[in-house]
Write a structure and sequence with these properties.
16 helices; two-stranded antiparallel ribbon; mainly alpha; 4 strands
């Protein structure tokens, strides 16, 4: 009995040790990046954390609950504007609202960033609940079209509610609260939340709804309630991501929150693996870095025998081709619906070393 317990306890303690070392290395790297990276590299690095939050919020819907939503940019816009309006000091609001004065009940409201961030997420969740309650009775393509329409409606409302949102002029000079430690702490908490949620009974209920709604209902799961809850939580996380994005670039306007932004997040989810937390994290980092590394494709290219004019958006063509190739040849994405584990890493390393050894022994 003691032998079995020690055998069973060994891998768990070893995995725990590996995890602690890895987390310590990540924290050290974040600290060094904040000190040593230049302004542009640090901006891309922090953008990776924000896209992790956004990718996990969309993957909660598409991957774990099986709901195809395209309105994520709208919930991001709600979170960004709510957080901005709650944290901007009165003189800055006066400077932004020079065409139409801001409503009196918002003029002198200024609260710290953390409660503003939570309120931004809660307001986005309320909007998500109000939209999800009627829309989630639809399925498949109809649901995608309806959520896309609601996302566009939110953007149009923001443009026209000039006394609240400053309309098409947007908001500029936001306090830069999205520091390196703030965005990566948010990303870490969202990853932890997703892991705990997926291991809970409610997470298993979401997966059951994704796999077969009729079977889930037969098992006593309230399918509609699970869908609405998933949509509301996803909207909350999207609002958090939008608020972090706004306070990182210190300016927001309605043009930021178009379908293109939702497409970028969807690209990360599909490439990483629909239904994988690890895949979303890895893909968010890879895609964000590649988006900046391939930015030269949008500019004029002048090689010795090859010249092209500026073609804005060409890098997105590259990502679109990559997405099509992934859908055709590897539909499950980088990780599929699997999660990274130390056993998986060790097994892959052992297989690789065995192959190398067999090749070395061949005459």
């Amino acid at each position: 009995m003691s032998k079995k317990s020690s055998i069973r306890g060994g891998p768990i303690s070893k995995n725990m040790l590996y995890t602690i070392i890895f987390l310590g290395a990540c924290i050290l790297f974040i600290f060094l990046a904040d000190r040593l990276f230049d302004a542009f590299s640090l901006r891309v690095f922090n953008l990776c954390a924000i896209y992790i939050v956004l990718a996990l919020s969309l993957n909660l819907l598409n991957g774990f609950t099986g709901l195809f939503s395209l309105g994520h940019a709208g919930f991001m816009a709600v979170g960004a504007y709510v957080s901005a309006l709650l944290t901007m000091p009165a003189p800055l609001k006066e400077m932004n609202y020079f065409l139409v004065p801001i409503v009196s009940w918002l003029h002198h409201v200024t609260i710290p960033f953390l409660p503003a961030l939570i309120i931004a997420g809660l307001v986005s969740a309320c909007v998500g609940f109000l939209i999800g309650a009627p829309v989630l009775r639809l399925r498949d393509d109809y649901l995608a079209i309806a959520t896309l329409g609601f996302g566009e409606i939110i953007r149009v409302i923001i443009i026209n509610a000039q006394s609240i949102t400053n309309g098409a002029q947007g908001l500029k000079g936001l306090p830069r609260f999205s520091t390196t430690f703030a965005v990566w702490a948010a990303a870490g908490l969202v990853v932890l939340f997703m892991v705990l949620l997926m291991r809970s009974s409610y997470g298993r209920a979401m997966k059951a709804v994704r796999d077969d709604e009729l079977a889930a209902e037969a098992m006593g799961i309230n399918v509609f309630q699970v869908k609405v809850t998933s949509f509301t939580v996803s909207s909350f996380l999207a609002g958090i991501g939008g608020a972090l994005l706004g306070h990182m670039i210190t300016t927001i306007d309605p043009k930021m929150f178009t379908f293109t932004l939702t497409y970028n997040i969807l690209l990360i989810v599909v490439l990483g693996g629909v239904g994988s937390i690890s895949g979303s994290v890895i893909s968010a980092i890879i895609v964000t870095v590649m988006m900046e590394a391939l930015r030269f494709l949008d500019e004029p290219i002048n090689l010795i025998f090859f010249k092209t004019p500026a073609m804005p958006g060409l890098r997105m063509v590259v990502f679109s081709i990559l997405l099509m190739v992934m859908i055709i040849y590897r539909q499950k994405g980088l990780m599929g619906n699997k999660e990274f584990s130390w056993e998986m890493f060790q097994n892959a390393f052992v297989k690789k070393s065995k192959k190398g050894g067999s090749h070395a022994r061949t005459p």
